[in-house]
Amino acid sequence: MARTALLTATLLATCCGFASAADNPASPLYTRLGGSESINAVVSDAVDAAAKSDATVAADRSAAKQKLAQFICARTGGGCSSEVGGAEFLMLVEPLRVALRAHQVPLVARNELLEVLTPARRDIAQR
Description:
The protein has seven helices and no strands. The chain has helices at residues 2-16, 29-32, 35-51, 55-59, 61-75, 86-102, 107-126. The chain is mainly alpha-helical. The N and C termini lie far apart (64 Å). It has one domain: Globin-like, CATH 1.10.490.
């Protein structure tokens, strides 16, 4: 009976994704966010949304997407190095939050990302 219960629990965990690195708090935030593919998708949506109301972002969406994706990668343990300018970062915070929810990034990972980015936001705002 115990073997059946263990097998059932393992199967459920695998099918539901509970055993994935994305759910493991010991995994780097970068991994829990879904890695480069997921981060790039979220960033793309956030930049596209910001471009609707800001001509600077609209003028060079590709560069803005690349900079923000590298910035998030650097801040979350993905091995990148990058910095984002103050205006670029500040205008993308709310669209980024919306995109994270739309891509169903788990709440814990969303909050952790925002916590990681908050010191950068404060530093940029003081410049």
